[in-house]
Amino acid sequence: MAKQGCWSLLKGGIVAEFTGVVEILLMVVVSVYSSKAMEIRVDNVSLQPFTAKEWRSHQDKSIDKVIRINRVVFIAVVYLSLVNLIQVRKKKVSFKVTYSNGTAAEGALILILQTKSGFPFGCGMNHYIVTDEAYRQWFASRFKVTSFTNEMKWYSTEKTQGVENYTVADAMVNFAEQNGISIRGHNVFWDNRVMQPKWVKDLPPAELMKAATRRLNSVVSRYAGRLIGWDVMNENLHFRFFEDKLGENASSMFYSMAYHLDPSTTLFMNEYNTIENSKDHTATACKYKEELEKILSFPGNAGLKAAIGLEGHFRDPKPNIAFMRSALDILGTMGLPIWLTEVDVGGGPDQAHNLEDILREGYSHPAVEGIIIFGGPIAAGFKCMTLANYDFEPTPVGEVVDKLINEWKSGRRQVRTDSRGMSEILLFHGDYRVKVSHPLINSSMSINFKVTKETENITVLLQFDA
After folding, report:
1. Helices in 16-166 by DSSP H: which ranges?
2. Where is the GH10 domain (predicted)?
3. Which of 6, 10, 63, 262 is least surrounded, with the fewest CB atoms within 10 Å of its CB?
4. Which residues are catalytic?
């Protein structure tokens, strides 16, 4: 979206599935929403080639980068336009080990175990989790964050007007809490008329407002303080059921109501095709940004904890990763957390490879703070993107997910201290258990600590009693 009187950056990319000599014609196609005459200038046109190997290398360097925001110190490649937003995935941790008299403990062995990942990489969950023990074990052994696929939606909890039933949703929340799994609430409202409870679709405006207010108060209050986020209005760029019935500020009003009921919970605007489909002009990054800014500027929403929810339903045979990156860059300028909320990939021989490309791009982008994939075992009815067969053995897609879960954590590591009693290591964000021992003395110690994006480089001090 170009602004008058200034230069605007247009960026994106193409993927060529062949090798050889080619001619590339660069065209600028401009849609002008004005009858006034205007002059358009194009300058600094550049086309930079990347091999798949080079693109992956850039992603890996982004994951390892270390940035001190205040002093603007950079290691590796950074997104210069996002300096104030950069979220590193790792931090340098220094260990200093001494004896009780303060002298350095040279040669001490430090065993490091990451007990919990600091990056929310999760999976959608459905009602089969309530009754299927194998599904419960499969899920809890892998994921610590989730969204329910349908069970919290209005058409699931109030099929008949005035008769609410949260039995299944409550059971799923209990399972998640018992297993340390965080929950994104999905969703309070869906702006698509087709996805309303049958009795809601033809309510007159006054009755719809009364029913919607009761719904919002019920579901938000019921789970207040137990969720990490809510999709308050789902897909309000593609659809406008509530806007047509209740006015242009319907979404903004519902966000305000949810915020005042549960002010500590992050509220998402959830949308599709913003990162996955460059041909859909309804939900471009610029239009998404404009709509969310409108919601945040609504009276009473100044303190709202907002976040950007991008569904990520990729259906093209080859995902446009360059387009995905450009959309994330644009939305990253808002300074809000970005989550990929419902990532799945259409079937085909390249499904597993395409999913890996998408997940790596999301994880390596500094503005992305969480990813939830929408897939699961075939036994739980997941057919679009199946992660496990009926015996809960991983499919090729499931193998990709398991590989990345392991790759994006530090696992078990060990280091030894130098002559100063010091040792340094780069660790992923998360929770850690550390045990220190020395070969010359019969003594050891253990300590727990966290590595987070909020802290600068960490120094862990340990002292032997002997």
Report:
1. 52-64, 133-140, 154-157
2. 103-404
3. 6
4. 235, 342
